[in-house]
Amino acid sequence: MKNLAIIPARGGSKRIPKKNVKLFLGKPIIAYSIEVAIESGLFDEVIVSTDDQEISRISQKYGAKVPFMRSEENSNDFAILNDVLTEVVEEYSKREIVFDNVCIILATAPLITVRSLKESYDLMHNKGFDSVRPVVKFSYPIQRAFKMDATGKVEMMHPQNYSMRSQDLEPAYHDSGQFYWINQGKDLLDPNKGAFVISEMLVQDIDDADDWALAELKYRHLNRKNDNELLHSGGC
């Protein structure tokens, strides 16, 4: 099997300036995604898709390739991961290079583990899914969610669930926002998707300064020197 890792890293982040190369515990945050991809041994190539020269330079410093710069069309706020996937696959196709599987790894996923990459890859092939992603279980039943109006008044979105026991409600999951395995010729919109459940401790959405601080706290906790295994050895 020939596998490609794509790390999308656009330069124009707004909520956190230069988010993809901002220092995370002393190292550009994109370096964590690059290093775990390389350490996993799963990929024939690890590339970064970017429109930014600084991101390109830093990515190459940590071992990724930047064989071509991202097009202007896919460098705006409206570009989605599927657009990046298509552009990269088509560019390699022009060079007569085809990969059996592609893994899109987000640039701001410092809690990603080698174990998660490997186990989800095995799941995709053992179960015949077209794509697989890590997900996290909601800590509280979403069937008991509230909605709120402009005055602050709340009401249940699904009042029929008010009297049901938590254990009788179907578990729900959300995307961890870390990576996506995809079979060649498929995309993220294909319906035959699989999921790999990971711990909430391994997940942190990073959209603002508080999120960033929480991610650093989780990373420190997972990498304490007295742990039996380090995070990037897949020991979490």
TrEMBL record:
InterPro entries: CMP-NeuNAc_synthase, Cytidylyl_trans, Nucleotide-diphossugar_trans, PseF. It comes from Desulfocapsa sulfexigens (strain DSM 10523 / SB164P1). This is Pseudaminic acid CMP-transferase. The keyword Cell inner membrane does not apply. GO terms for molecular function: N-acylneuraminate cytidylyltransferase activity. Keywords: Transferase. It holds the Pfam family CTP_transf_3. Gene3D superfamilies: Spore Coat Polysaccharide Biosynthesis Protein SpsA, Chain A. The keyword Transferase applies.
